[in-house]
Amino acid sequence: MLQLDQLICYLMRPGVYPEPDRRCIARLLAGARQPDNPFRFVFPLPVQTMLSKIRTNTIAACVQAWWDYNGRTEFFSTGKEAKRIRSLVYNMGA
Q: How many domains does the chain have?
């Protein structure tokens, strides 16, 4: 899977899809978050919305954006998803 595809999948379903390579995440997010990026239109609308909310180029920021986008839900599709999101979000003090 291409790194950018993996980032998009992870933004849509953290915990279900594996985290992108941590060595690449900052570079991928920095490029994807640029408002003048001509390829930004290919991202699904939820991902575009989440990218505009991400404050730092980290995995934790991706999960926080997912959490905020989904209304800080307590309901998750899978146990893996719930565990990953709760471990990151609650440890950040959200």
A: 1
